[in-house]
Fold each of these.
Amino acid sequence: MTSRPVLLYDADCRLCRFAERIALLLDRDERLAVLPLRDPAAEGLLASLAPEERYASWRLARPDGSLVGYGAGVPELLRATRLGRPLGCVLGLVPAPALDRSYRLVARHRGRLGRLVPDCPVRRLHP
């Protein structure tokens, strides 16, 4: 268990790395911890999932040890950041199945979409 939410992402995916950097930009108060899914330190956080499910999606490990991911987890991830909270509240009104379908559509095309985003560190919005 952790004292703050942990964003677990696919470090081998360019689009996922970009999304991780955006989450960090929105996290001005540094409320999130970040860890690649395949990092050995992530194993304990993913232990409750079946092996075939562990790397199927990004995850947000909550401080109580529970996990959320896919599209349905996006509102909670955004609400965990100060700058993303308003958008997270709005997206929280969208039914989880619709968010999951949107996530799966993006995930199917992540290689192509990844070529459209920068693969370099982004500047922090604050010093």
Note: The first strand starts at residue 6 and ends at 9.
Amino acid sequence: MTAVGVAVGALHRRLGRPGQDAALAVAHPDLAVVVLAVADGCGSARASEVGAQLGVRLWARAVERGLRAGLAPADPAMWAAARAAVVASLAGLADELAPDRERAIAEVLLFTSLVAVVGPGGGAVYTVGDGCYQAAAAPPVVLAAEADNCPAYLAYDLVGEPAVGHLTVMPPSPRGVVWLGTDGLSTLVATGCPELRALLACPRSAAHPDRLRRQLERWARGGDAPARLTDDAAIALARWGDAP
């Protein structure tokens, strides 16, 4: 079972700005895996929400191609090939979007990337930039941005400043839960927010297609209490077997 949720943070709501995060979950029953992806567009960019939406789709397609070519999720070569394919697509888009290539990159194509392949046969999480995730039985991980809240973006590959990617491999397991989140959730994860832990662990969150989004929206609106999500947030979640 899979589910995604995306919400515009309270600060963006007050400023009348669109959400800049994206999430995607794609099941491939014939491969016995699910591909998850979340992306967070650069907050100061004019239209980075476009890049984030493109990014999750480009990553999902590139990873699927690698899997169908026989590469394993734990193989760094699969992720290197997928990354190269996504960067090549971004290069083509940058050339088409504006005469000034670097301007197109800065305005549209800056986004962080968290991508996972999960299933009973094992899996992996690959990250470029900040955010948070949980890989099956391992504790949640919070990825911090660089100094001055400047995360790494995949599109830096196009200007000769490639960002470092990190690969986490998951062993085979007949059951499990994996989730990816953008950095709008990082504070809640780092502080051990019990409501977020319960949301991500509950089987209904994967079974109901809109439960994650509705809860993120509640936290972003706040109501009688201060909003818990001041920044945009996106989650992609997968659950398989009889996970606890």
Note: The mean pLDDT is 91.
Amino acid sequence: MIQPSPCMRNLITAFVFIVSALAPSVHAADTTQVTTAEEVRPIVDLGVLGAERLALPSAGDQVVVTRSTVSAGLDVTIAPGDIIYPGVTFSFATDTMDLSDAGYLELRLTNTCERILSISLRVDSIPSGDIPRGRGTGSAYLKPGDSGVARVYFNQATKNYAAVNPRLIKQILIYTAKETVHERSFRIDSIVAGGRSERPLSSL
């Protein structure tokens, strides 16, 4: 049998030592890589019969809301007209919605027309004690056929308004800008809450 030279034996010993030293680290890295998706929950059930009546259109007949024929969502069609901010409102007339365990409200929507759309999301909360009326806004800029999201974070104040009090949400508005020439349309795919509250409940 051919014996390895002293130099070769040293190389083999060094290689075994390096592999042994690295093995525990590699194993630890593999076992600690855990990926978890952020959990969200719907706050308006758009799939129920009559869901289109939950979305109140702007006054007049410029805005029409129907159930989507391709998904569990709502189709919103906006005819040309003079309304400054045409759209729909989800209002809690005799109550408020409590989302104090969440960090944001998110609108998911799809542009179903042939024009670029900028859609705004607004969330209002009512005043309570020393906490003033709150308002938060977000927007989505969508090309024809594109889907996207608009978010309102509860801990971010809007100009001239306090941050949204997630415990006392009164209404959710979805709207776009005035247009007197072209018809526009989009689909509300879902309205969900997610994230974690970044303020202690005692401050709400």
Note: Confidence is low (pLDDT under 50) at residues 11-37, 200-204.
